[in-house]
Amino acid sequence: MNFSYRIGWLLFRFLFTVYFRCRYLNPERVPREGGVILASNHASYLDPPLVGSGLPRVINYLARESLFRSPVVGAVLRSWQTVPVDRDGGSGRGLKEILDRLALGGAIILFPEGTRTPDGKLQPARSGIGLSIIKSKAPVIPVRVFGTFEAYGRKLRIPRPHRVTVKYGCPLYFEKQRAEAQTCSRQRVKEIYQEVANEIMAEIAKLEPLRDIS
Fold this sequence. Notes:
Blueprint: H1 3-18, E1 23-25, E2 36-40, H2 47-53, E3 62-64, H3 71-79, E4 83-85, H4 92-103, E5 107-110, H5 128-134, E6 140-146, H6 148-152, E7 165-168, H7 175-181, H8 186-206
Parallel strand pairs: 1-7, 2-5, 2-6, 3-4
Antiparallel strand pairs: 6-7
């Protein structure tokens, strides 16, 4: 961690521990090094820093390209090596940046749902994450956050001191799907992207906050 990232990590860790009484469950399931995709449900703007603050390694966050136009915010995002992407993070320069970071051993947080849930419930997965996964070689860690919708959902202007929890699942590898995508038709490749995305959401849904605590 560079100085800027370390300060941000400590501040978020303190905030989540004190204000939101956060619980981090099974962070040891995330590899300490090497490329890895963290695939999380998305209920709040709190989700990216919450997922990252539970891990003792640098996370390459994604942020909308428009945020980099702000002198202050842009400088911080660049110092954290944040990846500029469109909303889905699955096309053009954003996809190339994601794949490059993974190839260099970075950790990336992606949201299969594509955007924040409007009602606190898990939403259907979009195929964009499947594209990133199939084109990379990185394992995928399903992650589920609890309480962030109640703490700072879409309709809230100020975060509430509601308890939040993040649970990390076991690695998924998708070797069979990656191999098939090398030789199948273009239409089948698109189907694989969606199948992979659906499987990830199913694994996220299986994660429960008070089970398998090690």
